[in-house]
Amino acid sequence: MTAANLVKFDELHRINDKWTVVRMLGCGSFGVVYKVCDNEGFLYALKTEKYTPKNALKVEVQVLQTAEKQKLKHFLKLFDTGTCKSPDGEQVLYMVMDLAGSSLDALRRLRKDRRFTLPCALTLGIHFIDVIEELHSLGYQHRDIKAANLAVGTVDRTQFYIIDFGLSRSIFDEFGAMRRPRKVAPFRGTVRYAPLACHILRETCRKDDLESWLYSQIEYTRGSLPWRDLNNIIDVCSLTTKYIIH
Predict the structure, then answer these.
(1) Does 47 show up as a binding residue in the annotation?
(2) Cα distances (Å, whole numbers) of residue 57 to 28, 31, 178
(3) Is 71 left (phi over 0), alpha (psi -120 to 50) or beta?
(4) What CATH number does domain 102-245 carry, 3.90.550.10, 3.40.50.1820, 3.30.420.40, 1.10.510.10?
(5) Which of 72, 83, 87, 245 is the least crowded, having the fewest Cβ atoms under 10 Å away?
(6) Where in the chain is the domain with CATH 3.30.200.20?
(7) Which GO terms describe its molecular function (predicted)?
């Protein structure tokens, strides 16, 4: 996200007379996340995005609403969604959900060797697969699976939540049929964890979420990936091919 697209709210800013900004928590793929409180002082997370014809936030709302209908446990509860005006007068979309705790990536970085013990890493990997399976059962592919997008609960740290659906895509078309793969698909995801199909601009599918999971699993088990210092897509693709295929 570029600085021009950031929705900046100051502390104590009021949103639709329902939510008060406490502080900024961070930026996701497409939006800015704030800690907010309601009129009774209870804390939540509010994600904002400047309005465009194709807002990623709409997909996030759809995913959370569908998950809530099916009472799935690895998704944050959605409390509110709507529009408001930014301080500079632009139209902004927002959604309010439960606060999540630290991400697996943040917890990994707290450790001196930046990795979990082997038993811990294997246990986390199994939980991560369970979370991905729940998302796929809803009919969505995440397309940005990484440890930064799996968070623990604020109270129960054994509870895991998948977050940031800005790049997610339904695997079904508007008629309920499986989407036909495009001949060329634009790059989606984070270069470090992107599957090979993404690097060569092929259509990705649910198995590619699992390939991204594999790279995340390697990182928090070993402490790093072989291509951690590379940012160029071609270089990362070349090294990924070397290690994974050969």
Answers:
(1) yes
(2) 11, 8, 23
(3) left
(4) 1.10.510.10
(5) 245
(6) 13-98
(7) ATP binding; protein kinase activity
Q: Please tell me the distance from the alpha carbon of residue 24 to that of residue 16, in angstroms, as a whole number.
A: 18
For residue 3, is pLDDT > 70?
A: no
How far is the C-alpha of 216 from the C-alpha of 146, rounded, in Å? 6
Rounded Cα distance, 16 and 84, in Å: 7
| Whole-number average pLDDT of the chain | 92
Distance in angstroms (rounded) separating the CA atoms of residues 91 and 49 = 9
Q: Report which of 183, 178, 196 is spatially closest to residue 244, judged by C-alpha positions.
A: 196
Active-site entry in 10, 98, 144, 164:
144
* Token pair belonging to 178: 């499986």
Domain with CATH 1.10.510.10 in the chain: 102-245
Q: Which CATH class is domain 13-98?
A: alpha beta
The residue type at 109: R
Quickly state the pLDDT bin for 5 (edges 50, 70, 90). Answer: low
